[in-house]
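Fold these two proteins, one after the other.
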Amino acid sequence: MIPGPIEAGRLDRLLAVDGGEPGMAAAVVGADGVCWSGTAGLASLAQGTPITRDTRFHLVSLSKPFTAATMVAAATAGRLALDDDIRRHLPEMPPPDHGRPVTIRHLLSMTSGLDDVLEIDRLRGIWHPAPGRAADLLERALGRSRTSAPPGRRYMYGNVNFVLTDEILRRLGHASADAARRAAIYGPLGLARTTDRHDDGMPLDGIAEPYVRDGDSWRRATDILGICGDPVVSTLSDLTRWASALLAGRVPALAAMAEPTRLADGRPLRYGLGLFLRHWRGHRAIGHFGTQPGWKAGMLLLPAAGVGVVFLSNREDRTPGQMVPRILEAILPPDESATDTPPTAMGEFVAPEAGEWVRVAPGGLLDTVGSTYRVVAEGAGFRVADDLSAMIHADGALAADGSLDLDLGGERLRLVPASRPAFDPADYAGAYDGVDIPSRHVVRPADGGLAIDYGPGGDRGRAFPMRPIGPDLFLVEPAAPGIAHRHVFRFLRSAEGRVDGAEATLERLKRVRLRRA
């Protein structure tokens, strides 16, 4: 239990924002209800509407525990089995190219290996939701046989898994996945203001607007494609009821959700079914975070301590990875036994064939193609710390020859130090059409190097610089308010040495082929 009274003033100060800015809502809960809650800032800058406990926020990936709990409840009721081949419920899906069945458990545990359809759209230059886009994503997911990894062999976070899970729930006889969640979770727990919203243009009372920094001012975020795959919106009031019910043992599905998933070789993951599994200051911690430009949501439970934290934000610079630990630090005593130390700086590394890239920076920050995590020293290498925002496994060791042995979500890679070789931009300039996806990218000389255009036929064209990281390898780090996705392009050469294609690798989509037009 929480030791002693909560210092409400200290927690209130954590939420302080300047007047006229977007803000936050947060709470500390126990099994019996709310111990502290606070709100700050505006839900809408244009309207001057303050954030309250009943303001609705997009939960983005914090939607996933609701879906997992609903699916486990359906399995308990005998309506399906978690180890069912998903094609039993989605018979129109083609067999995956690896020949092994993908199961519902694979979907819920992020081990399906399926190509993430949201990443496909981002690679095509589509960055924000629109009416009908959720249906387009489902259609694409149901029609793909190509996979980025064999099912069960690698943890690879991807929203495609929950796009398909929602459709399976609908086909159990519900009008929608929202109706399935309402019957299993929202109704029994009294979550009256929790519902789905697939399109950012869909009117909904009490919804906060998402904001990102643009210089010294705030502007409304638009590049929020992920809400198509994670559509749940909720309020601080509803989420505190949900968190308290989980802590009190009133959600039978939690036991299955909080069991660590094991890869096919038996290695346990830091992910269960729709829940991440961590430790924080010696406490077992379970929960989930969600982030899209301007939408931030998090729930973390420490079951043995009987305490949980709920956090919501409509501003880009306040994330659950930052704020949830600060709230916990304000209510729990410090851990004097913590001895983690950051590894020494090791620089940038690439796996040329796989197209993976990582950077180990001073202070123990590990960048991958998808995210940034905190790592701590372990022998000659490092491991991902119990960083509450880390959604991936990335443990590595520096070899004697200067290379890096890396376990990235279960895939073991040998990476070599990145380099910046001289190159002729004319070798690469031209248009590249997708072989595995409908896309076109245009590579052109720019400022003595290369730039790549995203989005012909998409939402809008964007051009980003390409930085060399090895022979025929380039890193793209899209930079615009609210956009932060790294892509590695590995250019391919014909037997005559001419560049005739490329492969693109993202966090949730691997080695997508492009052909030079």
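Now the second one:
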Amino acid sequence: MGLRIRLVEPRPAGHNVYDRALLPRLGLPLMAKMLAESSHDVRIYCEILAPVDLDDLLGADLVGISSTTATAPAAYRLADLLGTAGVPVVLGGPHVSFRADEALGHARYVVRGEGQQTICELVTCLEEGRPLEEVRGLSFRTGDGEFHHNPARPRCTQEEFERLPIPDLSLIEGHRRMTIKPLMTQWGCPFDCEFCSVIAMFSRAVRHRRTDQVLAELEGLGAERVFFYDDNFVVNKARTTELLRSMRVADLTPIWSAQVRADAARCSLSRPEVDHEFLTLMRQSGCQMVMIGIETITDEGLAQIGKRQSVTAVEQAVGAFHDHDIAVHGMFVAGLDTDTAASAPATADFARRLGIDTFQLMVETPAPGTRLWDRIASEGRLLSDDWSLFDGQYVVTAPAQMTALELQLGVLEAMRRFYSWPTILASGVARIVSHLPDLTSAARPAFLRQLPTIVRLAWARRWEDIEPLLDAALPARVRTRVNAALWLPAVRFCARRQLAAWWEQDGLRAHLKFLASLSTSTASPGAPAVAAP
């Protein structure tokens, strides 16, 4: 008959840089699919899409909660509540994989590492009364309260990865709110950046889906927009080229975006010239934007974190992507040991000079399991043990060449500088002028009647309610052109609103006071003073 199993992905505390994406991680939909195939009753609650139904969880035979470091406090609170009510809880995800003893203080079971097979075996043991010691990758509390850690589970092989089913997004409550559908083609990353938890969780061994499997998943999604969740979409350029060509042949070319390294724009590491053929293929297959982990604007800083790229290569890549009408989301990190108080605002200026379309500046944040965590902890530079602050937005370590307060204010100033009103308006005017014929053709009575409602819904961030109005008011061809004309100023406007909302949070105000109390030196020359946007 199977068990009644509920899976939960908590949302981070307060406003978060990823709030608007409405993209669940794919671990739970994968596990849910595997459990459902074994005749279990499975549902997923992803709090960015729909609230948790506590009554439903209290009636479950097992509740699984997946957390990052920033969502660990929320996961622990829910686990404590359910445990008090007698509901068995299993915790999983990157944080508890490296803090299993901590997690067992809140739940009976902890799944470490790649958990899809581990949770299935755990459920089988619970159903059949088999000993838990059989399950590799599982930690659990024994009957006398002792913590027991089974041997680690080996990473799944390429053959095992190919046999994994397609994650079932329909098992997520509120899944219809997703205007962008996530899809992952591979696990692991061959690089070794100091701060990255991907290799700690999934190793440097890359395992990938076959092209036909990706095409089947794309067809099943039936999405207009897709985000490839791969941490590095172009690991093997020949494989990626085969996939993109096959997408075109199969006419499966939704608007898509993905995370790539800057060197994806080059022919190869040994041939640094721009790979125009590959970039043309990316655009023709539907690529609208790439997210590039630029990290820092100095070669010294890149060397420190083990990024294995140069600032010159980044500049070349941004220009090459733009030449092929592919937008660039620049992802940067502030607070490296090579940074000073002036580095964060200088990073925003660098992004504006390169014409980067959207800008993300996060504070370097150590996550358990990474080499950065080991180094920062050994140097005694951790400033907080509040895991909810470990989301990349708050300063939680002592910087090397400035005070923690200077770093926090510098990040706020950099974001405010990039998403200034002049920047937003300039991009809006430029896009309107370049797409004026398309916008003129959209000015039909049906659309103009709906425009006030669309504006109100956008202001309220009810994106899922806008889609049906646009579908009804505009032909698909015209709608596509209007989206192409206005998406960039719209995204920048939303980013500014998000920045303003983050600034108003009590949590940020309290953290600024805490950091101010730690400052024992005078402010560095050029340290920014920030007003709310």
